[in-house]
Amino acid sequence: MKLGHECGLFGVHGDPEAVAMVYHGLQVLQHRGQEGAGIASTWGGVIRHHAAPGLVTQAFSDPAVLERIRNPIAIGHVRYATTGGSLDPTNVQPLLARFAGGPVALAHNGDLTNKAALRAELEAAGALFQSTMDSETVLHLLARSGETEVEQGLRRVLPRLEGAYCLLMLVSGKLVALRDPLGFRPLYLARRGRAWMVASEDAAFHLWDGIEDVREIEPGEMVVIDERGPTSLRFAAPRARIARCIFETIYFARPDSHLFGRNVHLTRVAFGHRLAREHPVPADIVSAVPDSGNSASIGYSRESGIPLDRAFIKNHYVGRTFITPGQEARQVKVRMKLAAVREVVEGKRVVVVDDSIIRGTTSSSRIAALRQAGAREVHLRISCPPTRHPCFFGIDFPTPDELIAANMSVEETARFVGADTLGYLSEEGLVACVEGARDTWCLACFDGDYPAPTPGDFLSGDSPPPA
Amino acid sequence: MKLGHECGLFGVHGDPEAVAMVYHGLQVLQHRGQEGAGIASTWGGVIRHHAAPGLVTQAFSDPAVLERIRNPIAIGHVRYATTGGSLDPTNVQPLLARFAGGPVALAHNGDLTNKAALRAELEAAGALFQSTMDSETVLHLLARSGETEVEQGLRRVLPRLEGAYCLLMLVSGKLVALRDPLGFRPLYLARRGRAWMVASEDAAFHLWDGIEDVREIEPGEMVVIDERGPTSLRFAAPRARIARCIFETIYFARPDSHLFGRNVHLTRVAFGHRLAREHPVPADIVSAVPDSGNSASIGYSRESGIPLDRAFIKNHYVGRTFITPGQEARQVKVRMKLAAVREVVEGKRVVVVDDSIIRGTTSSSRIAALRQAGAREVHLRISCPPTRHPCFFGIDFPTPDELIAANMSVEETARFVGADTLGYLSEEGLVACVEGARDTWCLACFDGDYPAPTPGDFLSGDSPPPA
Amino acid sequence: MKLGHECGLFGVHGDPEAVAMVYHGLQVLQHRGQEGAGIASTWGGVIRHHAAPGLVTQAFSDPAVLERIRNPIAIGHVRYATTGGSLDPTNVQPLLARFAGGPVALAHNGDLTNKAALRAELEAAGALFQSTMDSETVLHLLARSGETEVEQGLRRVLPRLEGAYCLLMLVSGKLVALRDPLGFRPLYLARRGRAWMVASEDAAFHLWDGIEDVREIEPGEMVVIDERGPTSLRFAAPRARIARCIFETIYFARPDSHLFGRNVHLTRVAFGHRLAREHPVPADIVSAVPDSGNSASIGYSRESGIPLDRAFIKNHYVGRTFITPGQEARQVKVRMKLAAVREVVEGKRVVVVDDSIIRGTTSSSRIAALRQAGAREVHLRISCPPTRHPCFFGIDFPTPDELIAANMSVEETARFVGADTLGYLSEEGLVACVEGARDTWCLACFDGDYPAPTPGDFLSGDSPPPA
Amino acid sequence: MKLGHECGLFGVHGDPEAVAMVYHGLQVLQHRGQEGAGIASTWGGVIRHHAAPGLVTQAFSDPAVLERIRNPIAIGHVRYATTGGSLDPTNVQPLLARFAGGPVALAHNGDLTNKAALRAELEAAGALFQSTMDSETVLHLLARSGETEVEQGLRRVLPRLEGAYCLLMLVSGKLVALRDPLGFRPLYLARRGRAWMVASEDAAFHLWDGIEDVREIEPGEMVVIDERGPTSLRFAAPRARIARCIFETIYFARPDSHLFGRNVHLTRVAFGHRLAREHPVPADIVSAVPDSGNSASIGYSRESGIPLDRAFIKNHYVGRTFITPGQEARQVKVRMKLAAVREVVEGKRVVVVDDSIIRGTTSSSRIAALRQAGAREVHLRISCPPTRHPCFFGIDFPTPDELIAANMSVEETARFVGADTLGYLSEEGLVACVEGARDTWCLACFDGDYPAPTPGDFLSGDSPPPA
To answer: pLDDT tens for residues D58-84?
Structure first.
């Protein structure tokens, strides 16, 4: 399974090597977006930047680029994009613009659900758009706020935004970091000596020694960092109902992140334990689909007592390979990335643990590989409930037509993917393993209960919603 | 001498190969700008574009790019830029943006003298700028005009603009071409079958057979080309005083262009005849500084009866060569581009004809080369008057401090460049050779009489001028 | 630990998509060399080729390149190189040359121990060398053999070679594959329909369905494949003493390869079992150093009953990152590639399983990371004996000065790397887990008993050894 | 007309900036080859080099490259190549190799007529060839000479070579420059302080001040430059019959070179005078085809009294432009490079002067352009005799089938190219304008009298000629 995400953020205020730190920090967050990377930095009223398609190491393959943009305040962004347009350099963040308050840079993780309505309204009022990214909307609103201080401007802009957003901004020597009132996406703050850092996941801080005061930026909180350190402002009152994305814990986040109150790896191990209790099966070995099922497979093995083994070998060197002529080219590509080990599975009853099933096609090919390698039985165990509803808050799910769980029962899905049995972790089981009550999480992709308006709510009639 | 110019324009409406035609047409106009090239094309509401630094053949080195943007309506732009920023891809035209009336592309030749004031006003009103080009101002004004039809929008925008501008625009299937009311820069229209073409110089049309109806677009005229052909509108009343840039004829334009009513080569030959009458001198040979003095040297030779020869050899292969270590590196670079032929000049009295003297340093090195090659006397003849005043209408002159004629008498200049005698063409002589009365030309670089407000006129106080 | 290897080979004879197959096959063998990749193909007396630095997908990033060299017979090579010269395109294989027998391409895995002597002899006889690769020596000897048939030529050349070599060659429509008489490096043959394939590891065959007749090419065997299929020739008599590199099984080969008679993953699991019996220790968890210790950690955990967990998270996205300024840059780089998970190890007694210790520096930083993450005890277990002697047969070991086991006792090494205890698998234990008697393996890096002359044996005196 | 030439050479011994000097010197010689450029330099037994396709400024676009190869002894080469293979980096000179005498670099201008025979002989003796350039043959012969001193080795090698060759070599701290016994191609020596320079044309020396002791290297002379300065050796006795290529004077050489005893520009002016006497015609203007006819047109105009004008404008910016779709694309490309000026030629009788006619197609399109621009009569005058025979000594003529003068009479040619009259300079006229007797020149392309064996002379039978 491969899902797209709307990015990772990393920022540093107050270190002469801020740009180099962002360069490294983004590499730790590379799993959040591999299509493009950018860094903007500032000092003395000038913003410098570089952004390009590809991995961080590809976008910044020339050390001279880092040197050219060397400044003590910097923000960076890794991007996932869904369309061919993703390689358009103008669609790589941070976004840059100049307004009455001077130059500004912005990096965005999330998805605004009222972006189309805002854009229509702005265009009607004479705004010129230069990219197709919804993040540009934020800059136009800020420019039109009439405020010269960014804090005041944002206080007027942010109530206009619906949906999921974590933002990092550079403006007039400040680094601004903020998180939407429902807190869909994670955002963390830390101190290192006199420098301050922000990151989508706290794992990125631990590249360096001397990290202190790590804390989550709260939903509805805006942190403004200047030379005196951070100042915390609230642009929205604390809410009882928040909506932390549980898919971050299930799938996206690094296992070594301590996300939303708990370590991701241990949480996933707990998913595996619970999954083994909910869906036991007699078998000879337990194996993960690497790397997505790695943590949960440990829990399943321990709980069930069935030995853990490695049924698949992953080839980490395979990058953007192209499909060559020949009818089997697609199959070749799949096998190149993940190969079954005949000697491990031949004649065996195999429990395969993965984190989710989206379309079902990847699971099918994995199970087919096990069968061809001689597995006697294949029992698929998934460490989350069936994903039946699209995400409008920053994860690039396919349409419901393509979501297999939206169209098939569990039994039908098992047949489709070729498993002897299939077990999903229950919603209750899932929530039991994470920190906080159910209404502090967004589980919309499982239960369809969206915690905020979705794009469809803004499409009634041709006119944009009243401001 | 090497002066910068703010570009060349070429557009085609109604030919399936419009993009390829623009690609070729821009190459004919390459002398008007070598720093960057771009093409935008449109069909069915979508605009495609490509722009990159370098010559046309460098910016479009991949045929697949032309194929990707293939459309029957296209405009293109070659750019000269004055700063290191010229290599910033975001500063290459045509500019693209999206406003309420849909996507728009714009290419600009000229210079707006009130650009700073307009920009300040727009930023105060919440406009986001993405480039440092004054041309972006036009798009912001158009977006804020509140008009959905481009003709109506431009009628409101253009009166706000001061200075020199020829514009090509693509918007909603139309190609719009217009020229400022004073007509500083040239712009031509032609028909080829059912297709229509516009170009900064008519020489570009003659790549193709079957060109008809070639005419100048008038000062203050806007030509809107759609599928029914061109419609001519006036956005400013005809004026008796217009201001055609005489430096186009003296220096910039191709010799085979028929500019402002007369062939450029023949006009320059006429300058040479007149120059020989105004500044005769006994000599053995007449030689041009190639290629800038080529045409005028023919006139001087014919009028004076002194034989024409080639005292210099130009190396057309030398492009962007870098200066290597060593004290003589700069001299080496000059000699590499232009070498004197000892056997031609040794012991001779040489009349050297060039089109202008700007800083005087190039003339110095040319004359020094002739002396080292043994010339007995060197008489420099310039086919225009002394250039004493900067240009604010599209030519990148140095500051008055650097203009030698603004700081030295003719005799001092002759001594500075090392000439035995120096003669400039008189203003009267110049005007006598071109078409139309003196008040139809801009001669501000010679006489300081600017035909329109200059940037200094907009700098009184912090507030922008009243709209 | 990161050791260099002298490459991977893949070849196909008799499939119209042979080049595409080699492209994919080399990706499966990418772990054997990441510095450069090349493919040569042939048909009708012409050899086409492409080779470039980088991964296979980087060296062949343009599909047009594969199309340009499309031919039904092809060989390919992935290369590891030890020096900065590795990026020199002239040092990428396959090597190409033209001799009396026509064009020839050659790819080489291994290391000739008498290469310096051969080169000196050839230069003295007027040979011109164009690369610094020892493989070029083979071509010169072939050209000078006076034979027009490659089989006859090789029969005269191969006895001159000392050391380790697997060779693939294209010459006059044939694909020749051969392995040195001691069989240091692996080489496999397979059939797919009418096509024949050769590969350094059999795992590469299994990208495709319908693979049959997989077998090892024997030490001293030359397989010549033409349109009638393969012909097996012996260029050296079978020997009782052969010298299969046991480090291929310990470290280099893919876990899903079936190398030297046994599956690599299962063999490594067996190493782990044995290691647990030889070096038991009370502990809370067992963890691999990913990915090198993955298989052995499973065996250790099963044998000891200590639960398996994941103490480290590997970042697979980090490629060639450069070191940025700042004193901690190197530590940042190490942590970016592998991070300890605090919640897994804090307060725990941890058994860490890895496959080898070379310099000890990597183990040190791994153990330091565990300590910083709060591990109470760290017990390092290595699934091979101490590596005390350099390899001259194709693995790029550091010099003895740098091999920690050549300079320290086990106790000293444990202190150096910061482990509470350190246990190496014994030589007896190692040999007990693999197929065949001890004298069919090269264990020189452990016991110093080299099965063939080493470079030092050819340096006595200035004259080359008698031919 | 565009003919290919086998290159230009430039070398410097004894200046710390030798590499930079070669970089600049090659740019002066760029007209001799535009397909590739390379420089090799040496100091202390090591040779450094860089070579790449394109112009000198493209091949050396990175100043760091010049810095990397900075050494006080250097040679360089600009290359023209006839096939698509020209972009193969392995076919760019200087060639590098290592033989028993150490590293050697070689640059070659000319063409060996017995190259195929030599190559066959060497391959039969076991030589490995790595390029397709005949120059590699020289290195193989040198390596096999058994001599350790390059002077001795070359004395044995050079008598084996037939045809045209100027060679520059770097070996063991020496720069060797030599010219074949018939002296087909030019080669010059000069001193500047303690440094010595060699160049294909003396014009390249005049980038610098202080040039002294300029002289031609004699046919059959080898100049060996070491730290004590140059030593002149003869490897072949002086001959009465030498064979200086008269096409160098007619077409290739720079007008400011003083080649084979006389300035090239003045010689071409003399050709024009003579041509006017041999082929007078009543006309209104004389015009060159720029730049090839520039010098001769001056002579024609002066002798005939018909005024000189510029009927064509050349676009120096058009480089490698590609042909876009559409039937007229080729015509567009021709016009883009050279445009006729209507106002100059309309209704006029025009004498057009060019230096040669090869295929006739270029002349046709030039004359067609004049007709379309309204010329009443077009009289073509060519400053050399009809070229009827191919060149085997370094100029890349088309085959006789394509040489129009080999297949048509003068009258037929005039009709083919569309001229009212056509006049060629006679052989007598040509020889009368140059220095030295007719038998000191090669006029084989005009009279078919080849002064040395041609490749056909070495093709009798399958066996190579006796050594």
So the answer is: 899 888 899 999 999 999 999 876 433
How many other CB atoms sit within 10 Å of the CB of residue B294? 22
CB contact under 8 A, A30 and C317: yes
Known catalytic residue at A391: no
Identify whether the C-beta of residue A242 lies closer than 8 Å to the C-beta of residue A182. Answer: yes
ipTM computed for the complex: 0.89
For the segment D137-160, the average pLDDT, to the nearest whole number, is 92
- For residues B346 and B344, give the distance between their C-alpha atoms in angstroms, rounded to a whole number: 6
d(CA D123, CA C99) in angstroms, rounded, equals 5
Whole-angstrom distance, CA of residue A113 vs CA of residue A119: 11
How many whole angstroms separate alpha carbon A388 and alpha carbon A395? 14
| C343-389 per-position pLDDT tens digit | 999 999 999 999 999 999 889 999 999 999 999 999 999 999 999 99
To test the contact with chain C by mutation, choose from A207, A252, A371 the residue with the greatest count of C C-beta atoms within 10 A, namely A207
Could D324 and B66 be called an inter-chain contact, meaning their C-beta atoms sit closer than 8 Å? yes
Whether A66 contacts A14, CB under 8 Å: no
Pick from B303, B318, B271, B308: nearest CA to B288: B308
DSSP H helices in A257-324: 264-278, 294-304
Query: Span A148-160, mean pLDDT?
Result: 93
Q: What is the mean pLDDT of residues B348-360?
A: 96
Q: Do chains A and B touch (3 or more CB pairs under 8 A)?
A: yes
Chains contacting D with at least 3 CB pairs below 8 Å? B, C
* Nearest-angstrom CA–CA distance, B9 and C22: 50
Among A89, A143, A146, beta carbon nearest to B127: A143
Cα separations in angstroms, C363 against B179, B426, C369, C370, C412: 73, 85, 10, 11, 14
Q: Residue B240 corresponds to which amino acid? A: A
Of D206, D217, D137, nearest to D184 (Cα)?
D217
Minimal C-alpha gap between B273 and chain D (Å): 13
Q: How far is B273 from chain A (nearest CA, A)?
A: 53
Contact B128 A89 (CB under 8 A): no
Q: What is the mean pLDDT of residues D42-47?
A: 92
Q: Do chains D and A touch (3 or more CB pairs under 8 A)?
A: no
Beta strands in A204-359 (DSSP E): 211-216, 221-226, 229-234, 244-245, 258-259, 262-263, 285-288, 312-314, 338-340, 349-354
Q: Report the neighbours of B using a cutoff of 3 or more CB pairs below 8 angstroms.
A: A, D
Virtual CA dihedral for C438, C439, C444, C450, nearest 10 degrees? Answer: 170
CB A253 within 8 A of CB A262: no
- From B7, B166, B442, B445, the catalytic residue: B7
Sign of CA dihedral A365, A370, A371, A377: negative
| Distance separating alpha carbons of residues D430 and C352, to the nearest angstrom | 89
Stronger pLDDT, B133 or C242, i.e. the higher one: C242
Distance of CA B325 to the CA centre of its chain: 34
The mean pLDDT value for D131-153 works out to 88
Name the residue facing B57 among D27, D255, D320 (closest C-beta): D320
Report the distance separating Cα D467 and Cα D452, nearest Å: 18
How far is Cα A84 from Cα B237, in angstroms, rounded to an integer?
Answer: 48
Q: Does A96 sit within 8 Å of B129, measured CB to CB?
A: no
Yes or no: say if B80 and B6 are a contact pair by the CB < 8 Å rule. yes
Which residue type occupies B257? S
Cα separation, A343 vs D290, in Å, equals 77
Residue linked to tokens 């006595």: C460
Contact between D123 and C100 using a beta-carbon 8 Å cutoff: yes
Q: What is the pLDDT of residues A355-373, one digit of tens each?
A: 999 999 889 999 999 999 9
| Cβ count within 10 A of residue C412 | 14
